[in-house]
Amino acid sequence: MVLRNPFLFLTALIVMAFFLTEARLADSDDRERRRERLREHIRGGEDFKPVANPAYKEHCGACHFSYHPELLPSSSWKRILNQTEKHFDASFELDPEVKKTLLAYLTANAAEKSTAKRAARIMKSLGKTTPSRITEIPYIKDKHHKISEAVLKRPAIGSLSNCTACHQKAEQGNYSKRTVSIPK
After folding, report:
1. Which of 11, 132, 143, 165 could form a disulfide with 157 if both were Cys (CB 3.0 to 4.6 A apart)?
2. Is residue 49 part of a domain?
3. Residues 61 and 34 in one domain
4. pLDDT band at 38; cut points 50, 70, 90
5. How large is the average pLDDT for residues 37-45?
6. Are residues 70 and 12 part of one domain?
7. Cα–Cα distance measured from residue 176 to residue 41, given in angstroms and rounded to the nearest whole number
8. Is 48 a member of any domain?
9. What are 96-150's pLDDT values in tens digits?
10. What's the CA gap between 107 and 76, in Å, rounded?
């Protein structure tokens, strides 16, 4: 092939290189934005967001550990808040506005809305069920199946629902095996 006008060919090549470089830089920015969204989506992988709602901490945390909303689906939180007269072994009343605030917080941060891998595993294990207790979740039960009843009944633990007894960083949303210390 003989080039009739090498200058024109070279100019066309430079212009193409310029546009390809611009496109690559734009792709690079897009890739970086996608990576950032993915990092945000993964948000530490397994960990849940720390409980941040003052009303939830005050009203629910007054009697027990403020369980992370990501531990249950929104349907479970709705059921729990609608059955305050049969709240496990107790009953309580909530002001309608407080109940509305709690429900909004819990459902907005429920397992099906979480980006944590552990919440996705919880949801997958539930199928179509709506548990009333975190200890009824198949994923949670499976993770604790090797712990005997005798261990769970130790005074320092009491039951499987006492997350902070063994999960040293549960309040921060970290339920990793690496942070578990089972009391004697």
Report:
1. 165
2. no
3. no
4. low
5. 54
6. no
7. 19
8. no
9. 899 999 999 999 999 999 999 999 999 999 999 999 999 999 999 999 999 999 9
10. 9
